[in-house]
Amino acid sequence: MHLNSTRIRMLAAAGLLLVAMLTPSFAFAQAADDARVFADTGYTVADDAIWAFFSQHGGSATFGEPISREFTLMGAPVQLFQDAALRVQPDGSVQVMQLTDPGLVPFTHMDGLTVPAADPAIAFVTPSPDQPNYAARLQVFLQTSVPDSWNGLPVQFWSTYTAAGGTDVWGLPTSAAKADPNNPNFVYQRFQNGTLMYDATVGATQALPMGEYLKDILTGQNLPADLASQAANSPLLRAGGLSGTDLTDAFVPDAA
Fold first, then answer.
1. Per the domain annotation, does 164 fall within a domain?
2. Which of 54, 111, 201, 233 is most buried when burial is the number of CB atoms within 10 A of its CB?
3. Does residue 22 lie in a domain region?
4. Domain count, the chain
5. 206/225 Cα distance (integer angstroms)
6. Bridge partners (DSSP) listed for residue 205
7. E strands along 160-216, which residues?
């Protein structure tokens, strides 16, 4: 049987591909690409800088899974995750957005939970970088402000905070630990970038899904009634009053 040159080249290319697929480096590259795809939510972490930061700080165990594509929010590239939002800075570095700030999701009533508001007393005693021995002052402040045990409950806020990256991930505490006034089994602590919750009924500490709440506000969909009421005048609601924001395809899943 005669094989023409095109057929020979096709067979040769297929053979080279098969060899490549069987090599460890190819398998590693494929696995690395697959790790960026989150089938449960349908989104991919495509940005290399976001992926590096996400991976270095605990991945989905820290931030939850992606719930958006990368999009422009208030002039910066951002990707939302279940528990956080990661923003690419002008220098290419990545930071966690301060979601509990007044301009984002500062609210205290979320899906039936009542979390503490930012406490001016905590802000007053928080060390500032211009103070002498700032690093030492900050460490003492954090160790005394973020408890592992609170009112006899093993809330594990300090352990969770430090394991997940400390200030790089959570920012600084903006409230003391406080129980939910409607459910004493729930204890919260607010930070600049999110809120930790201890559930005494199951003995577990976890982050509140602040990224989900931000997505709900931006889209105006799936908003819990209490959150919708508080966000009624927010410029974030349906992104109606936000400049430098483009939600085109931001919430269109890109993975099966």
1. yes
2. 54
3. yes
4. 2
5. 23
6. 198
7. 178-180, 183-190, 195-199, 204-207
Q: Which two tokens stand for residue 253?
A: 């899943």
Q: Whole-angstrom Cα distance, residue 186 to residue 197?
A: 7
Pairing of strands 76-81, 84-88: antiparallel
Does residue 213 sit within a domain? no
- The Cα 96–Cα 49 span in angstroms is 12
DSSP 191: B
- What's 25-87 look like in SS3? HHHHHHHHHHHCEECCCCEECCCHHHHHHHHHCCCHHHHCCECCCCEEECCEEEEEECCEEEE
Digitized pLDDT (tens) for each residue of the chain, 256 residues in all:
444 443 334 334 444 344 444 444 444 444 456 899 999 999 999 999 999 999 999 999 999 999 999 999 999 999 999 999 999 999 999 999 999 999 999 999 999 999 999 999 999 999 999 999 999 999 999 999 999 999 999 999 999 999 999 999 999 999 999 999 999 999 999 999 999 999 999 999 999 999 999 999 999 999 999 999 999 999 999 988 789 999 999 999 985 5
Instruction: Quote the domain boundaries for residue 158.
Output: 116-207
